[in-house]
Design goal:
about 950 residues; 8-stranded mixed beta sheet; about 35% helix; glycolysis; Rossmann fold; 2-oxoglutarate dehydrogenase E1 component; thiamine pyrophosphate; alpha/beta; 7-stranded mixed beta sheet; THDP-binding
Length: about 950
Amino acid sequence: MMKQMLSNSYLFGTNAPFIEELYETYLANPAAVDPAWRDYFDKLSTLPGAGNYTGPDVAHAPIVASFAQRAKDGTLQSSARASESSDKQVKVLQLINAYRFLGNRWAQLDPLKRAERPQVAELEPSFYGFTEADLGQTFKTGSFATATGSEQATLREILEAARQTYCGTVGAEYMYMSDVTQKRWIQAKLEPLRSTPRYSAEERKRFLERLTAAETLERYLHTRYVGQKRFSLEGGESTIVAMDQLIRTAGTHGVQEIVIGMAHRGRLNMLVNTLGKAPAMLFSEFEGKHAADLTAGDVKYHMGFSSDVATPGGPVHLTLAFNPSHLEIVNPVVTGSVYSRQRRRKDEAGNQVLAVLLHGDAAVAGQGVNQEMLNFSSTRGYGTGGSVHVVVNNQIGFTTSDPRDYRSSLYCTDIFKMIEAPIFHVNGDDPEAVALVTQIAMEFRQEFKKDVVIDLVCFRKLGHNEQDEPMVTQPLMYKKVQAHPGTRRVYADRLVAQGVCGAEEPEQIIKDYRAALDRGELLYNPVLANHVREFATDWTPFVGQKYTDECNTQVPMADLKRLATALTTVPADFTLHSRVQKIIDDRRQMGEGKLPLDWGMGENLAYATLVRQGYGVRISGEDCGRGTFFHRHAVLHDQNRERWDAGNYVPLQHIDAKQAPFVVIDSVLSEEAVLAFEYGYSTTEPNELVVWEAQFGDFANGAQVVFDQFIASGEAKWGRLSGLTMMLPHGYEGQGPEHSSARIERYMQLCAEQNWQVAIPSTPAQIYHLLRRQMLRKLRKPLVIITPKSLLRHKDAVSSLEELALGQFQTVIGETDEMDPKKVTRVLVCAGKLYYELLAHRREQNIRNTVILRLEQLYPFPTEALAAEIAKYPKAKEVVWVQEEPRNQGMWYWFASRNHLVRHVERPGQELFLVARPASASPAVGYYAKHNAQQKAVIEGAFGALKSPV
């Protein structure tokens, strides 16, 4: 039995893919396989599960399973022994597939030639039992394409072709992909050409010109601005060749806009030689002569730019996104911007707008934001039809790093295998190969609307920056770098040797380019001056606007009632969950004025009025469709149908025949990348309310870099406007450290220069007017809303339809009970749900000397409104800021450091006090009993004897 199994061992186990290959070849062309196998495949229609196998979509699982079983029971013995050539034929297909799978391990990718070729037994003919005598034998090539189109070749020819295709200066990885069509497409692009490009002399001269432009600019800056940081591209100049080829190919295939994301390395080169930024403008930035029209500004290698360039397929608009030094964080920002642009064009397939993301080799593998972004790259609400990723792989990451220390994978690009994106490794010293794989990558993206990766293996001539000395930590590598003549020189010598260029021509290109730089101009500039784009967004109405709280957000009562009816109308055959049915029934009565409005109804009416007025609404977050706390129910689910089978109904999408779009997306379990995506979206679309809701407020911790580097400071650094709205649930209900605090102090610390707004609305009318104000004002500032949890259904946190129809957002809400101002001796100032607990205690204890003011907008601070409310109580000797957060957290330190409350209590004899939880290293306690004790102490302390003034 064992002997029998060994004799047929190639029929199952690890060789199953090769049997599949043979079977696929048979399906495509029965004559292309050995007669013995063809006879066997002809009989497969009787296999369970095989069905009527008339095409390439036949299920392969039962076929492969049958091979294994029949090999074990001996029924394949006669077929397997039909001829020795049949056995060898299978092994030839195994060898071909081995090169498709593993050939990249032998590819000549490193311009520095540092590593020896690894031992990969599967790539050796001897591994399959072939000898020198077999090399001249002819075999069928299966799906492996030959240059002549023949279906057979000698083993020597097959081996040579496989090595040339997969082991030259291009190393392709794609066989892990599950889609056979995509794999065959890639094979058809690489194998007939043997991965060897065939470009005209004119095209090759263009590659040389691009290399020359890249190298010459760096050297020019190095000598003109000695010692200044620029994060040179030297060693990776083929990046400019890749970008040139990508843009030209994209234009030919219908792309009209490209948004580019990249970190600082090579950014100045990209700005000048790809986007066509005038060198004179760059020089002025080096010399500090640029206009100081931003309150902060940024360093030159973080700045963005946009232009319109000519391509063989027509004009393409290029945008290089602004990016801080957080490397990969810009990537989801770019995809969000691309998604917004696609929606504006109604480009649902993603044919017209493209994201191009440039990565560093250490950063792409090391920073988790990439995994988050790749995870949502094909999901609803985030998929853009695939990005083109270019990894500028200088093989060192950062100066002191060692590949053994900055990743655990074989390649830095292995992360992209999680979404089955094909990866093309290419030697940066071969610009023609770089151009070839770039063209193939761009065409793949357009054909399959899927991410694709170019791993451009190069080196870095200088250190991490121009003041760094890499020889200290990388002596052997940098001896090779110093000995390398440069990619431009290598390619120029090659073209001269091949007669494409004259001996003096490469040097003349350098001289011409330097002369142009001396004039502050570009030798080659594809930029189209005064090009008018059809889908450009007009931000003019929002630029330079002075901040104001004033805005008319009222909507006539009749319209509110009509919209309330639409919100509570469900298709007749739609079965709601009983709890949701009760909510909808209550909302119907709210819309009729029979019940006061709760938070969910107020919020939904805000969205309804906005989409009816022509403002789109987009909400995303981990539970935002239903709402983490079961309050929103913007998406209704039929209890008798699965949600992916027409089981959803979104009332806000059925408000009006001419309404703007309403989109609500339950995002992947991610904060950083999703928030960055929404920020990018909001910076591209000023006429849409873009909302990101954290599942719990503290979950925003995982996205803090987005708040710090983009949302809070983007306008000050780059002049980028955004109306992004963030909802962060907050409130001390005894749910422990991680589910109580939204860390308000973090957002307060970032407040300056009226950069954004921070609000804690406490009623349904307040959230209604706040959301409407965010769109109706000619002002685009980010908005951080500290939203409630238990307050969502609090019996006193309700509003009337009249408050929506006739009211407005109040930055401060004064005392609501009837109190005699002459008897008031204490003023409590608080925010959020704590107000209702203080109010309940005062009513229970019948306290008549203390009023409670609600601060609904924390920033910009409502100085005049608060002063006016405090002034109503001239006999008040004590003004108390009350917060449920620990005293070292929450709003107190921000207020105290800026003297905001103190300036309102300057009357003689009036003092300011603080009531809060004790200072704590944790946002909240985890023991419920301790929480209750602390909450009780805060509430009673606000009305009891006060300690010394602060």
